[in-house]
Batch of 2 targets.
Target 1
Amino acid sequence: MKAVFIPYNQTYKERVLDMLEKMNIRGFTLWDNVQGKGSKDGEPHYGTHAWPTLNAAILTIIPDEKADDLLRKLHEMDKETEHLGLHAYVWNVEKMV
């Protein structure tokens, strides 16, 4: 199993949820109103007057064989509008109950 953490600009929310649905990825945890700033040249997303946008994030645990396809689709989405910000991080899940 793989854990996939997906932080993204809140603008992507419906598209990311739709992608998970189409890939039959049912289980996930979603956080709205996530604050952050890109590590390269991204603008802050603080939900303030000066920096009004916010992020959201999803954590999902999926079978190993779905991870590469999910990352590829997320990367394609990000390339369409790179200035918004979308990332995905994957790590192994050793145990689960």
Target 2
Amino acid sequence: MTLKIEKVSDTRGTTLRLIGRIRVEHLEKLKAQVHPKPTKVALDLDEVSLVDVDVVRFLGACEAEGVELLHCRPYIREWISRECGVRSSKSES
């Protein structure tokens, strides 16, 4: 299964419901949906089954920019935390 993106917008913002596997080749399309948005953006990861390291870094960067990650699986959340910690440590050196 490849990535499917369902977009839901209302007065509070836009939620992008991501379904399937997110890989590096999907990032350009996803970036175009996330940036730049005049309203609040959230990514619903409830039906995401697989990600790669580039996607994890992208999700961490999105979150740092204020994008809310909804229904993020614990292993993805942990991976984001580790990747962000590694980047922070390297930039402090």
